[in-house]
Design a protein that fits this description.
With 277 residues, the chain is of the alpha/beta class. It binds S-adenosylmethionine. The site of S-adenosylmethionine has 22 residues, from α2, α4 and β2.
Length: 277
């Protein structure tokens, strides 16, 4: 059974190409993630896939909240302590609490933010995302693997002669080794000026291999998109050539926690922030 939603007439940004229809017959990672976060923008297939994955690893529900908390902490760090005023957030997700522009612009109201995602349901929220801003903010409907398109369109909002924080938060597990995620990250960072940052989180099987591998195989059996978990060494490689900010690549609850709840989060993800010299 499918639930069809006609959404795009009213939400497509002016000038954008006609979007893909939202396909409710197969689960999508953006909508499964929304379900795990307690959101409402998901369909029966997403809920079923999300539940089956979480049966293998129930800590997942808390873990995704830990990822959102990392995102907010890292953006606050970048805006308040590192003085960053431009953010390129790739793999935006369906809007939820503490979206990147809200956190960045609460610290520095004029901050420029460009969001990128390739899921039509995220595009359907682009207008809502862009109305609550206090600085130039844009949304690009693109696949992260099309780095030339992402960079060309982002240049309409971001000034690439000034530092930019490139955010790849919980997205690179959606890029398979065949699609060379290391090349993707290097291409983006090569285009950024010195003083720019890379912020990245990535799910891993390092902590509880049995449960996380079971969760991974369930997800991959249900979704058309393939997910890859990576080890700490593989995640550290994304930061090659960059200077890691303390405490380096750590389990995300251990990245500059601001509360006991941050520290206690069971997220099984590596994360870090690094600066381009
Ligand atoms: C798990 S969600 C993470 C959302 C947000 N970054 C966060 O950490 O809360 C992953 C997002 O990446 C998007 N995504 C996956 N593969 C992508 C690709 N190749 N290009 C652009 N976006 C992609 C999905 O549509 C989804 O919205």
């Amino acid at each position: 059974m499918t639930e069809k939603k006609r959404w795009y007439e009213s939400v497509v940004p002016p000038g954008a190409a006609a979007p893909q229809e939202i396909d409710t017959s197969v689960p999508h990672i953006a909508r499964i993630y929304d379900y795990w976060l307690g959101g409402k923008d998901n369909f029966a297939v997403d809920r079923e896939a999300g539940e089956r994955a979480a049966e293998a690893n129930p800590a997942l529900y808390e873990g995704v909240r830990g990822n959102r908390a990392f995102l907010a902490r890292s953006v606050r760090y970048l805006a308040a302590e590192a003085g960053i005023r431009q953010f390129l957030d790739i793999g935006t997700g369906i809007p939820t609490a503490n979206n990147t522009h809200e956190v960045a612009q609460s610290v520095a109201p004029g901050s420029r933010v460009v969001y990128v995602d390739n899921d039509p349901i995220v595009l359907s929220h682009a207008r809502a995302l862009l109305t609550s801003t206090t600085g130039p903010t844009a949304y690009i409907d693109a696949d992260a693997r099309e780095t030339a398109k992402v960079l060309a369109e982002a240049a309409a909002t971001l000034d690439f002669s000034e530092p930019v924080a490139v955010m790849l938060v919980a997205i690179l597990h959606c890029v398979t080794d065949e699609d060379d995620p290391y090349r993707l990250v290097a291409t983006l960072m090569d285009a950024m000026p010195p003083g720019s940052y890379l912020t990245l989180t990535h799910p891993t099987q390092d902590f509880q291999p049995d449960t996380t591998n079971e969760m991974l195989s369930r997800l991959n059996a249900m979704m058309p998109q393939r997910i890859t978990f990576r080890t700490r060494d593989q995640v550290v490689r994304f930061f090659d050539g960059l200077d890691l900010v303390e405490p380096g690549v750590v389990r995300i609850p251990d990245w500059r926690p601001e509360s006991e709840a941050d520290t206690a989060n069971p997220a099984e993800m590596w994360g870090g922030v690094a600066r381009k010299a």
